[in-house]
Structures are given as structure tokens and as C-alpha cells.
Amino acid sequence: MLRHALGKTFRFLGYTVQYGCIAHCAFEYLGGIVVCSGPSMEPTIQNCDVVFSESLSRHFYCIRKGDIVIVKSPNDPRSNICKRVIGLEGDKVCTSNPSDFLKSHSYVPKGHVWLEGDNLRNSTDSRCYGPVPYGLIRGRICLKIWPLNDFGFLRASPNGHRFLDD
């Protein structure tokens, strides 16, 4: 009787570990569902929108300018942020705020990206903390799931004029 109970317990633990490993690999390498909060990506992504974030792009270095990514926050490693890629390594980017009279520019260093929120007036992004290491990217948002009336692929940046092609 005890042997039978122990066998069932170990079998259950074995399946739990197996399914846990499969779930971990799926979320780490394929993607997952993310609930976005905060106003920094408005109007593209509203507070409490649900999106699908795929992780394959970051593993194959396929992140491009204009992509919206989920990134470990450079200010707080326990939280994630959602921002748009404005510049890749070697790109010239505008580092000043839109309201600044004099514009300043800089180049994105090797192994980094420049991130900004679509809501430039209400976003803490690379203009505050500088270029972000590529290794902090967790995934690329490719689809808005909720609300259903806004279901589909994400629209282009309302700040496309900030992308420089020098």
C-alpha cells in the first residue's frame, strides 16, 4: 500500500517537473501573453491591453527599428517595460525630448538598442537611461489580443519622424 502511494506521488512529481520544463521552454523560446500597463505606449498600446510577445526574434537577432519589445527594465530588473526600438547599434538617434529647442544626437553603441515610448511626453525610456543592452530584450510584441475590437497586428509608430537614416 505504501509502495503504491509513493509510486503515484513520484510519478505525479515527475510529470509536474516535465510539464514545468516544457512550459518554461515555451515561454522562454517561443513567447507568451503579456498584459501591458502604463501610458508610455499610447496610442498604440493602451493601459491593460493584452498582447502576444514572441521570443524567437531576440534569439536570432531579428529585432528591427520600429518593433515594439518587452525589455527587462534597466532601472528595476524585477520589472519589464514595453517600448519601441528607435535605433540599433551604430544608428544615429535623437537623444533630446521633442520639446527641446536644440536637438542633440548620439550613436547607439555596439550590442545596444535605443528605446522610446510612443507617448513621448509621458515615457521613461532611453532618453532617461541611455542605450539598453540587447541582452535585456525578452521578446517582440507582434499581436494585440485584447480588447477584441482592436485585435490584430500593431500599427506603425506615431513618431516615425524620430527614426534617422544617417
From TrEMBL:
Domain Peptidase S26: start-end pairs: 16-97, 103-146
UniProt KW keywords: Hydrolase, Membrane, Mitochondrion, Mitochondrion inner membrane, Protease
Active site: S40, K83
Cellular component GO terms held in the UniProt record: mitochondrial inner membrane peptidase complex
Subcellular location per the Swiss-Prot or TrEMBL entry: Mitochondrion inner membrane
Pfam entry (one): Peptidase_S26
GO biological process: protein processing involved in protein targeting to mitochondrion; signal peptide processing
Keyword Mitochondrion: yes
Catalytic activity, EC: 3.4.21.-
Entry GO MF terms: serine-type endopeptidase activity
Family label: Belongs to the peptidase S26 family. IMP1 subfamily.
Quaternary structure annotation from Swiss-Prot or TrEMBL: Heterodimer of 2 subunits, IMMPL1 and IMMPL2.
Protein name: Mitochondrial inner membrane protease subunit
Gene field: Immp1l
